[in-house]
Amino acid sequence: MDTVINFNSIREYNEFNNNETLHPMVGVVHLEKAAPRQLRRLRYSFYTVFLKKIKCGDLRYGLSNYDYEEGTLIFLAPGQVIGQYGEEFYQPQGIALVFHPDFISGTSLGNKIHEYHFFSYAVNEALHLSEQERKIILDCFSKIEYELHHAIDKHSKQLIISNIELFLNYCTRFYDRQFITRDNSNKGILERFEAKLNKYFFSDKPQNLGLPSVTWCAEELNLSANYFGDLIKKETGISPQEYIQTKIIEVAKKRLLDADKSISEIAYELGFRYPQHFTRLFKQRTGLTPNEYRTVD
């Protein structure tokens, strides 16, 4: 039976992995302490980051392409489900950093946690670490673990949160590096994105589906919306939404050369529900209305 195991507290997750609970709201979990177990789907009610090895049982599915051989980071936001159902047993390996959203509520990290988009990346968009990067990550985990073992004082929470934030900031840098080192792969995605848009606007999809959304484009490219957005921004300097709007204006300019078509017809062909929305966007991007563009020398 394909059941989902729910972890509502850090304590439950620690017990599941035979780890001591040093703090009810945050933990560094050593997965090798867990008993061998069957593959299952797991849901976490807290932020979870796995530092996994290459062959790691529960997370090996969909992770066939690696840039590095030394480790992989996978990020989960509260409520996400991960894993695969199966009859075989495996020995968990690696380390998990877990922290409850209530632990960071009202702090600077709590206010900016949504800016770390990688918590909503798909599993196959994991962060692949070099040996040097892995050492930095392990050092961050070590500092958090030190504070968890230290007698609680007035500094404890702030130091733990500061080290979690430091860790996440390093991960942001390492993802930027990954976007660069996978440049050929990224250019392939950009080319496919451009091709998808061209095909979209020269079909009947705009009239039937409306303007292409960032989510639709990401799904067509088998990427999560946030990973796709960050990748396109890193590759082009603009957001996917801006890229789509640029394509709309490019196509619109060509169609405006056809004097037999009205502005309204062109707007509907492009996927706009209302012609005035097309006129507004065109004016914002070009400084001219569609009619003015037609009459300019």
TrEMBL record:
<dbReference type="Pfam" id="PF12833">
    <property type="entry name" value="HTH_18"/>
</dbReference>
<protein>
    <submittedName>
        <fullName>Transcriptional regulator</fullName>
    </submittedName>
</protein>
<dbReference type="GO" id="GO:0043565">
    <property type="term" value="F:sequence-specific DNA binding"/>
</dbReference>
<keyword id="KW-0238">DNA-binding</keyword>
<dbReference type="InterPro" id="IPR020449">
    <property type="entry name" value="Tscrpt_reg_AraC-type_HTH"/>
</dbReference>
<keyword id="KW-0804">Transcription</keyword>
<dbReference type="InterPro" id="IPR009057">
    <property type="entry name" value="Homeodomain-like_sf"/>
</dbReference>
<keyword id="KW-0805">Transcription regulation</keyword>
<dbReference type="GO" id="GO:0003700">
    <property type="term" value="F:DNA-binding transcription factor activity"/>
</dbReference>
<dbReference type="InterPro" id="IPR018060">
    <property type="entry name" value="HTH_AraC"/>
</dbReference>
<feature type="domain" description="HTH araC/xylS-type">
    <location>
        <begin position="195"/>
        <end position="296"/>
    </location>
</feature>
